[in-house]
Structure formats: C-alpha cells, structure tokens
C-alpha cells in the first residue's frame, strides 16, 4: 500500500510490498488464462443427514490446478477474482460444471440428481444477471431447479438490499434452495433474515470448532439451530471434525452435517464412489 503523508502525498514502497504486487499481478494474469486453459477443478464435500448419516448432496468447492504452483486454494484466488471481476466467468463455470456433474451421477446411478450446493459471491449479484445465468445453466444441463442450492454470505442480505432481495425472490420462485453460508460471522439482523426467502442456515465452522470447550460457542450454535427451527429453516453444521461435535449438534436438532469427520472435499471420481456406497457405517466410524 502507498502511504500518504500530510498534504504533499508521496508513496513509499518496500521491496516486500513490491514483490507482493508483482506476484498478485502475475496471479491475476494467470487466472484470466486459467479458465480458457481448463485449469479449474471442482472438489465435492458430502452433506450428511443428521438422522440417518446418509449423503444427501454435495457442496462444490473450486480449486485451481496451476501449471507451476500446484493446487491453489480458493482462499488465495477467490478474493482476487472478486476484485477483478473474473468471478463472473469463474462463477458461471462453477455453476455449470457442478450441475453437469450432478446430472452425470444421476445417469450413472439411475437416481434423481443429488442436491448440489454452489457458492456464489456477492459480486455475482451486482456484476451480472445472476437469475438469467442460473436459468441458462439449468436449461443447458437439464438440472432440476429444486436440486440446486446457492450458498451466499450475509453480505448479500446487507448490501444493495432491495436489488439483491428481488433477485433472491426470483431464484426462490424457480425452486432453488437458498442458504446463508458462514452464518453467525456477519452482521445480518433477524429482520433481514425474515424478509429474505432463505431456506437454510450454515452454522459457521468457528462455532463448531469450539463446541463443548467453550460454553459461549455451544450456546451460539444451539441458538442458531433454534433460530432456524423457529423460522422454518434447516441448519447445516460446517466443519465437523470429531464425533463429539456431531453428537452435540445432533442433540441440538441440527438438520445436516458437513466436515472432515465424514469426508474432505474430494475429486468427482471419489465423490461418485461415496454416492454409490453411502451406507451410514462407511461414513460414521466412531
Ligand atoms: P465455504 O463455502 O464456507 O466452504 C467450507 C470450507 O471449509 C471449505 O474450504 C472446506 O474445505 C472447509 N472445510 C470443510 N469441512 C472442514 C472441516 O471439518 N475442518 C476444516 N478445518 N475445514 C473444513 P475451501 O474449499 O478451501 O473453500 C474456502 C472458501 O472459498 C469457501 O468457504 C468459499 O467461501 C470459497 N469458495 C470455494 N469455492 C468457491 C466458488 O466456487 N465460488 C465462490 N464464490 N467461493 C468459493
Ligand atoms: Mg459454502
Ligand atoms: Mg461456510
Ligand atoms: Mg467460509
């Protein structure tokens, strides 16, 4: 960052900042090409029904198979994609690929498509016609709208409120499931939550992480589950790593579970196997 000092502003750079900038510019240029070159990959993490421990669907999580840097985490390039606007083509690709994969599994198993959750950035609400894009993808892939879930953070409820509300109402009318991701970390008010057509609250991993240890987080997780119940929303606990966390959330009445305890996000081939062989005993090994 350039520092402004007093009235006469001048910039000071240190070499570390400069190399950070160069790296960022390189990565940005590479990300533009990544889409064309087909370097993006989706991994899938199962969502499990708390009552019978069966796989009910997957969350699609993007990764970047960089030619020299290896597999890059979305935490390192989603913010860049959002800042540059590349999130629009990237987000569209993720949506189409996740729906295509759900339809492929459906053909292979002869079962209706699994529920597929896709993360959408708040930038996709203001930089593109998200509703038109989602409709296009559903038509192209044949994915039924009620099999698709869109995950968004609380910021979608809190910025450009009226515009975003209008888009969410249309998506909801198509039959799409809407989920609030990382719930509890933002600042959305209960009034917003009631106004928006939200189906699902995903309890942020930070509350699940400290379940039991710290009474505050246990109380918060339990409050979110009860909030969901009183608003007629289902709840998904993110980041379950241990049996104790699963048991606590199940006792609270949380609807669905996700986390390394069941499975890490895995490539499509492995996720497909989970789908075929999802007897409760396979996933829930205490
Ligand atoms: P998220 O949507 O909240 O996804 C959950 C993240 O938690 C994933 O990280 C997942 O691998 C990780 N996770 C799941 N279970 C556990 C667990 O038991 N323990 C721990 N420690 N972590 C767990 P990932 O895949 O690195 O994604 C990070 C974030 O990047 C996502 O958070 C989401 O905000 C964003 N992201 C990923 N894919 C996309 C995408 O296609 N579009 C957009 N806009 N954002 C994406
Ligand atoms: Mg998510
Ligand atoms: Mg999350
Ligand atoms: Mg997150």
Automatic annotation (TrEMBL):
Keywords: Membrane, Transmembrane, Transmembrane helix. It comes from the Bacteria. Residues 24-279 form the EAL domain. This is Diguanylate cyclase. It comes from Winogradskya consettensis.
């Amino acid at each position: 960052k350039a520092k402004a000092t007093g009235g006469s502003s001048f910039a000071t750079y240190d070499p570390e900042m400069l190399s950070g900038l160069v790296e960022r510019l390189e990565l940005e240029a590479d990300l533009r090409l990544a889409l064309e070159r087909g370097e993006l990959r989706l991994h899938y993490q199962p969502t499990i029904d708390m009552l019978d421990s069966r796989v009910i669907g997957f969350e699609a999580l993007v990764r970047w198979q960089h030619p020299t840097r290896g597999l890059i985490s979305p935490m390192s390039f989603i913010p860049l994609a959002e800042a540059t606007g590349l999130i629009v083509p990237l987000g569209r690709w993720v949506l189409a690929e996740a729906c295509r994969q759900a339809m492929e599994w459906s053909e292979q198993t002869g079962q209706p498509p699994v529920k597929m959750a896709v993360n959408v950035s708040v930038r996709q609400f203001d930089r593109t016609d998200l509703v038109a894009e989602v409709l296009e993808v559903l038509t192209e892939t044949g994915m039924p709208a009620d099999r698709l879930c869109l995950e968004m953070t609380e910021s979608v409820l809190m910025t450009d409120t009226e515009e975003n509300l209008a888009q969410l109402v249309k998506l909801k009318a198509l039959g799409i499931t809407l989920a609030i991701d990382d719930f509890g970390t933002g600042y959305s008010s209960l009034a917003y939550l009631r106004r928006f057509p939200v189906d699902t609250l995903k309890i942020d991993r930070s509350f699940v992480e400290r379940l039991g240890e710290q009474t505050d987080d246990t109380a918060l997780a339990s409050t979110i589950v009860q909030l969901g119940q009183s608003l007629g929303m289902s709840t998904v606990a993110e980041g379950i790593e241990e049996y104790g966390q699963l048991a606590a959330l199940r006792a609270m009445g949380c609807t669905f579970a996700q986390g390394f305890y069941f499975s890490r996000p895995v490539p499509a081939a492995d996720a497909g196997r989970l789908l075929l062989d999802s007897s409760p005993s396979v996933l829930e090994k205490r």
